[in-house]
Design brief:
The chain is α/β, with parallel strands linked by helices and 397 residues long. The protein has one domain: 3-Layer(aba) Sandwich (Rossmann fold). It is 39% helix and 19% strand. It contains 13 helices and 14 strands. The strands form 4 sheets. The protein has a 7-stranded parallel β-sheet with strand order 3-2-1-4-5-8-12, sandwiched between helices. A 3-stranded mixed β-sheet has the order 9-11-13. The protein starts with a strand and ends with a helix. 46% of the residues are buried. It binds nicotinamide-adenine-dinucleotide and sulfoquinovose-uridine-C1,5'-diphosphate. InterPro entries: Epimerase_deHydtase, NAD(P)-bd_dom_sf. Belongs to the NAD(P)-dependent epimerase/dehydratase family.
């Protein structure tokens, strides 16, 4: 297949590009490199040294003989260029990673909220409008988030996207319907993914676009089979207070002797998936495209759930790190349970990688190797969800 990978220079997009290229697909990475600019804005850098995207593609060619094409383009701001690009390349599938993906970054200030909404909602809508206008019947695979469901404890498993409801008619009969699971986003970033869902629903119904939305949990780890092939193919690894995700942060903190930064009681339960499984799920979803006229296909792309304080204790046991319970800069439930259905990927043959000491230790080793690149002052998470929380967190030692 000819596959366009929008956001293919990012943490999940890069290993996905390599994985699908190694399977023989023709890969076109489309990216505006905004993630690299945000590193500059924040004064941080990936733990792992990343080469330019052009250099990464050159190395891949050298190592495997396979070609990756890179196209510098802003999906959100350059609609006409993007439409012309699609018209010229006519991909069989489009994988859409090209959004601002950090919840803390999206809550930093009003400017960051506005940027996140403009970038994410426009990027998604531009892709949809351009597919309709060009008449390209590509399968669109979007990376969404488990966070659209919210984290209120309901004592029932979260289904894959849709909720069956019985509605009583005026005649007193009960009619069964399936609706999109009600969204309850916990940040402006997560809210944009909720908005994306409505855009998908409309375009699938109105124009027959074939769309798969992957509600992904928190991705951890760094290497995949392909990124290991050469030091310059290494994946990015975010550790800072905005972009670093919880488990990867705990692992680098352990590596540099920084107390593990648990927010609040650490009673938050979240869904997780290893980066290797993430790229495998995308491959499986690609191979199982919906038909024209079918509703949006939604998968829960996660393999296990964990409570934050349990993860901290696990990493502490493994490495001897200390655990610090800090005031929570976010507005979120202090304690929640989470049960998630993920039967569809299991049925397609996913054999999940579970959190295991070996893999955790491997990430700590990566962190130790590049520890000299870590700026400790960028480790704390300082982005507060509300002005009240900002004032409170500031006063706390
Ligand atoms: P990332 O920030 O590392 O990568 C996103 C890429 O998209 C970057 O290379 C960026 O430059 C590019 N991009 C952003 N806006 C663009 C635009 N307007 N035009 C062109 N390119 C643009 O993020 P990631 O961690 O690789 O996540 C990829 C996707 O997966 C995101 O949509 C995210 O919401 C979703 N996701 C990520 C995680 C996770 O834990 N990392 C978990 C669940 C879902
Ligand atoms: N947390 C800590 N300490 C830290 C960092 C985070 O206790 O140092 C807590 C947070 O308060 C939160 C939980 O850990 O309760 C998860 O935070 P996170 O930053 O790992 O994850 P999140 O903000 O939800 O976002 C990440 C990705 C996002 C993706 C989402 C999947 O950045 O792109 O959509 O995970 S999910 O969480 O399933 O919605």
């Amino acid at each position: 297949m000819k596959i366009a990978i929008l956001g293919g220079d990012g943490f999940v997009g890069w290993p996905t590009s390599l994985h699908l290229s190694s399977l023989g697909h023709e890969i076109h990475i489309v990216d505006n490199l905004s993630r690299r600019w945000i590193d500059t804005e924040l004064g941080v850098q990936s733990l792992t040294p990343m080469d330019s995207i052009q250099e990464r593609c050159r190395i891949w060619r050298e190592v495997t003989g396979r070609r990756l094409s890179f196209h510098f383009l802003d999906i959100a701001k350059e609609y006409d260029r993007f439409k012309a690009w699609l018209e010229e390349h006519r991909p069989d599938a489009v994988i859409h990673f090209a959004e601002q993906r950090a919840a803390p970054y999206s809550m930093k200030s009003d400017r960051h909220k506005v940027y996140t909404v403009n970038n994410n909602v426009n990027a998604t809508h531009n892709v949809l409008a351009a597919l309709v206008e060009t008449g390209i019947d590509a399968h669109l695979v979007h990376l969404g988030t488990m966070g659209v469901y919210g984290y209120s404890t309901i004592g029932a498993a979260i289904p894959e996207g849709y909720l069956p409801v019985g509605i009583e008619t005026l005649g007193g009969e009960t009619v069964q319907q399936e609706i999109l699971y009600p969204t309850r986003p916990g940040s402006v970033y997560h809210m944009t993914k909720s908005l994306d869902q409505i855009l998908f629903q409309f375009y699938a119904q109105n124009d027959g676009l074939r769309i798969t939305d992957l509600h992904q949990g928190i991705v951890w780890g760094t290497h995949t089979e392909q990124t290991r092939l050469h030091p310059q193919l290494v994946n990015r690894f975010d550790y800072d207070g905005d972009y670093g995700t919880v488990l990867n942060r705990f692992l680098i903190q352990a590596a540099i002797g920084y107390p593990l930064t648990v927010h609040g009681t650490g009673g938050q339960t979240r869904a997780f998936i290893h980066i290797q499984d993430s790229v495998r799920c995308i491959e499986l979803a690609l191979g199982d495209a919906p038909k024209q006229g079918e509703r949006v296909r939604i998968f829960n792309q996660m393999t296990e759930t964990h409570r934050v304080r349990d993860l901290a204790n696990l990493v502490a046991r493994l490495t001897g790190a200390e655990v610090a319970f800090l005031p929570n800069p976010r507005k979120e439930a202090e304690e929640n349970d989470l049960i998630v259905q993920n039967d569809q990927f299991l049925a397609l043959g996913l054999d999940p990688i579970r959190l295991q000491d070996g893999l955790l230790a491997e990430v700590v080793d990566v962190a130790k190797k590049f520890a000299h690149r870590i700026d400790r002052s960028r480790v704390p998470a300082v982005s507060a969800w509300t002005k009240d929380i900002a004032a409170r967190v500031d006063r706390d030692p």
